[in-house]
Amino acid sequence: MISYRLGVDDLADMRFASSPLLETATSLWALHEPSAHVVHLPWIRRTQALLADWPDRGLLMALVTPELQWLPDFLTPRTDSPLPKVSDELERVRATPPERAVADVLSAYGGRPLPASLARLCEQPRVLRDRLSAVLASYWELAIEPHWPRMRAVLEADMVHRARLLTRDGAAAVLTGLDPSAEWSNGVLRLRVSSYRLEYDAPVAGRGFWLVPTLFAKHAISPVGDDEPPTVAYPARGIGNLWAATPERAEGALEELIGRARASLLVDLHEPASTVELARVRGVSPSAISQQLATLAANGLVSKARAGRVVLYARTDLGDQLIGRTRSARRPA
């Protein structure tokens, strides 16, 4: 059980963030056990093919502890901004004290024997840190960076959703909605972690409290330690559509009413999305998408909200009603 005690000021300072390096590291879980991550199978197949002849594949996969599937903590530094750059996160990994890097690897394995590749590196702490940093950076470029725009769009859409929920229903609704394992009562957030035995109870006490959506975690996770801001990573919403190849086709009545392009956009905006992601799926320029979105927004069918550097669009209640009515009009009597 992991327990965080939050005061009024801590709740007021609760923040959301996404982390490209967290996605890079936790994606190894999907490669390690594809059957537990079937929603990511399109990405898994492509990535396995890319890694088939990669010389560092064995060392990369050794970062995932057998059975526990833990990762060395220093490879996923706690966030310090809502939308960090992967280059900044990697720099923090490279700045890890070498002795801590070794300790985190040993801790992740929990007393189990290390693979030979890791055991040799642990004999030279500085070499271990630098080698694993380089492997993770190369893996980011190979497997995650090409897909990062669509991955980031899903993560930021979740952040916008939770921020709206926080404004509308309060912190309790946000915290209890993170994961079925999350419980909130009397100022304490409790996360029931079933995969290993851990009892940790700590006050947030003004250190900051970060909520981080992630694509590859099956349940809420939280690295523990008194020297960094408490952070809870939780499964993001909308993962089911992450690897969809084509947008959903709008129905005829809606196309006749507002045009095919705008109808297709309106159907797709059941979850918030950015102009870049919408344009990528359709193979058109972001400016073309922006023009269509501007028309939909001017007529009250979509709304927009900023999440850091990105503007996300989502369907309004009026847009939902319009889709429902046009679909009803097409159903046979």
Describe the structure in your own words.
This protein is of the alpha/beta class. It has three domains: 105 residues, no CATH class; 128 residues, no CATH class; 85 residues, Arc Repressor Mutant, subunit A. The protein contains 15 helices and ten strands. A four-stranded mixed sheet has the order 3-4-1-5. Helix 2 crosses helix 8, helix 6 crosses helix 8 and helix 11 packs across helix 12. The mean pLDDT is 86.
Summarize the structure.
The protein is α/β, with parallel strands linked by helices and 333 residues long. It has helices at residues 8-12, 20-32, 41-51, 57-61, 86-94, 98-109, 116-122, 125-144, 148-169, 171-176, 252-258, 260-268, 275-282, 286-298, 317-330; strands at 2-5, 14-16, 182-185, 188-191, 200-203, 209-214, 231-235, 273-274, 302-307, 310-315. The protein folds into 3 domains: 2-16 and 151-240, no CATH class; 20-147, no CATH class; 246-330, Arc Repressor Mutant, subunit A (Orthogonal Bundle), CATH 1.10.10.10.
